[in-house]
Specification:
With 302 residues, the chain is α/β, with parallel strands linked by helices. It has two domains: 134 residues, Diaminopimelate Epimerase, Chain A, domain 1 (Roll); 121 residues, no CATH class. Helix content is 63%, strand content 7%. It has ten helices and four strands; from the N terminus they run H-H-H-E-H-E-H-E-E-H-H-H-H-H. Strands 1-2-3-4 form a four-stranded mixed β-sheet, with helices on both faces. Strand 1, helix 4 and strand 2 form a beta-alpha-beta unit.
């Protein structure tokens, strides 16, 4: 099928009620999967519902680190030395929205740090964001080799920023991903079940239509056979008519038989042409036509 034909069929499908519903379910499923973080990295998946991410190979007790940060609007990424701190901050931008993110990588004498302010990202809060990113990591170099103590310093800096109004007070609100996955699964399931129901209904309707067509074709064929038999009887009656005209040689008794035969044929012809015929009518009329044909042959033999 060409692309143009496929586009026309797709447009026609989307114009139907079922097509619009299917499109809405697909969009809902896509939104739910995207907002739930189906394509997130390991760090993004971790900080979506937590406050600390510890990269593989970094020796930090993540549970203890989570307790230190608590429910503050603060996310800390503990990465190995030489990691891309700025890239890691951008990587969790959507998952850690509404927080202040601090990326720490150990060095021989302390920590390299990079912060990104995701609480208010509009230009109006640019000054606050710059101050928060500068202050949040101060003093962590003094805790080299002691990451949990460094986190305590970070928490102190965060609380100071809250007290001076640089960061708005309040706890972090975490939106769990499971309900969104359930919404996505329900939308996909609705599409699958709806498509299966439509397919099954269409298949059943097709079977019924095919069976009905077969019956109609059979009835048409039987009607053609009946019409041919009626035409044959008409020809027999025309041939008999030459014998029972005033110039014919048929006797009076045979002439009465002929008239009765012609009258019966006229009645049968009127009944066959007057209304649609079902199988029972076709069977009965076929028998009557055969009887008339037999009477014609008998009369001709006399």
């Amino acid at each position: 099928m060409s692309r143009g034909g496929l586009r026309v069929r797709l447009t026609a499908f989307l114009a139907t009620g079922f097509g619009m519903t299917t499109l809405a379910c697909v969009l809902l499923a896509g939104w739910a999967l995207w907002s739930a973080g189906v394509g997130d990295s390991a760090a993004a998946r971790q900080v979506r519902t937590g406050s600390v991410y510890v990269a593989p190979g970094v020796d930090v007790d993540r549970a203890a680190a989570e307790q230190i940060i608590g429910n503050r609007r603060l996310v800390v990424l503990m990465l190995p030395a030489g990691a891309d701190r700025r890239g890691a901050c951008a990587e969790v931008e959507r998952a850690a929205a509404g927080t202040l993110v601090l990326v720490l990588t150990p060095t021989g004498e302390g920590y390299d740090r990079y912060a990104c302010f995701l609480i208010n990202t509009d230009d109006e809060h640019f000054g606050r964001a710059l101050a928060a990113e500068e202050i949040i990591g101060r003093g962590v170099d003094a805790m080299a080799g002691r990451p949990l103590e460094a986190l305590k310093v970070v928490v102190v800096n965060y609380d100071l920023l809250v007290r001076v109004g640089t960061i708005p007070d309040g706890a972090r609100t975490v939106s769990p991903a499971l309900p969104r996955y359930l919404i996505a699964a329900a939308a996909v399931l609705a599409v699958v079940i709806g498509a299966a129901a439509v397919w099954a209904t269409a298949r059943r309707a097709g079977r019924l239509a095919a069976a009905r067509q077969v019956r109609q074709d059979a009835a048409t064929d039987r009607r053609k056979v009946l019409d041919a038999a009626v035409a044959a009887v008409a020809e027999q009656i025309i041939n008999l008519d030459q014998r029972f005209t005033p110039a014919g040689r048929g006797g009076r008794r045979h002439e009465t038989t002929y008239r009765n035969l012609a009258a019966d044929y006229s009645g049968l012809l009127a009944e066959a042409a007057g209304r649609p015929l079902d199988d029972a009518d076709l069977d009965r009329l076929t028998r009557e036509v055969e009887a008339l044909s037999r009477r014609c042959r008998e009369l001709a033999a006399r």
